[in-house]
Amino acid sequence: MLDCVLGSFLQIFWCLAMIVFVLYVFSLLIVQGIVDLRISAGETLKDEDVIKLEYYYPSVGQTLLTLFQSTTAGLDWRDAFEALEKGGPFLSVVFLVYISIFTISIWNIVTSTFVEKAMKLAKPDLDSMLLEQSMRDLKDTEELENLFRPYATQNADGEEEISLSDLQDAADEAEFLLYLSVRGIDVKNVKLFFYMLGSMHKNSVVDLKSLVKACVRMKGFATSIDLQSVSFEAKLMHSQTKDLFKVLRLQV
């Protein structure tokens, strides 16, 4: 939050500059209109109307402050408008245009500028992203262990293992597959998935921790680096196969 505040000082400066510019332009228009009104109307103006005009719009600076208060809840803009309403349509229209532009356009532009800058500054750094990812993976690992544990058995060493039949029994339950699918783990071919793990461990059973780690790695969609890795391995296997065929031909 402190970084967002400190990093938005430049936006504060330019937003204030734009607000002051708009206020100054409308203040000049209103004060000039009041001066023309006092000159043209002369003694026909009521003392009550003159008092209101001098109270809210005695000078350009005070007019600027009155306009700013009218749009920031410091002053009800109806009171400021009633003081100008007696001066004719020009002053009334100028004031209403100011209120409309300021509340509809200016404030929204200022708000969007700060929100955009705050969103950029609020992005987590690399350490925060790594910590968040580690905590998420740890939570998913614990949940998956609790999910697979009812179908696992313990071996002689006390380690939890799961066989192909146990895994297929679990996959036959719709709630089990739905639980995995919601967490981004989609195991379409249970038998192939099990044999992939079994070949790594060269056993007919897979320990529970290895199964859970494999599921966590499968979470989500394949990334570009995953596809590039598969493509590289396929090209490497193709090159090794061609070299093997060349050696066999020479031997024959």
Provide an overview of this structure.
With 252 residues, the protein is mainly α. The protein folds into two domains: 2-121; 127-221, Recoverin, domain 1, CATH 1.10.238. 76% of the residues lie in helices and 4% in strands. It has twelve helices and three strands, in the order H-H-H-H-H-H-H-E-E-H-H-H-E-H-H. The protein has helices spanning 2-7, 9-41, 47-56, 60-70, 77-85, 89-121, 126-148, 164-171, 174-182, 190-201, 208-217, 224-251; strands at 153-154, 160-163, 205-207. A three-stranded antiparallel beta sheet has the order 1-2-3. Strand 1 (153-154) and strand 2 form a beta hairpin. Helix 2 (9-41) crosses helix 4, helix 2 packs antiparallel against helix 6 and helix 7 (126-148) packs across helix 11 (208-217). The longest helix is centred in the first third of the chain and has 33 residues, at 9-41. It is elongated. The chain starts with a helix and ends with a helix.
Salient structural properties:
mainly alpha; 76% helix; Recoverin, domain 1; 3-stranded antiparallel beta sheet; elongated; single chain; 252 residues; 2 domains; 12 helices
Q: Residue share in helices?
A: over 70%
Distance between the termini: 74 Å
| Number of separate strands | 3
Strand count, sense and barrel status of the largest sheet are:
3 strands, antiparallel
Sheet with the most strands: spatial strand order: 1-2-3
Query: Which ranges are low-confidence, i.e. pLDDT below 50, for 5 or more consecutive residues?
Result: none
Strand proportion, as a percent range, falls in under 5%
| Rg calculated over all Cα atoms | 37 Å
Q: Indicate the structural class.
A: mainly alpha
The structural domain count equals 2
Kindly report the average pLDDT value: 79
In one word, what is the shape? elongated
Helix-strand string: HHHHHHHEEHHHEHH
Number of separate helices: 12
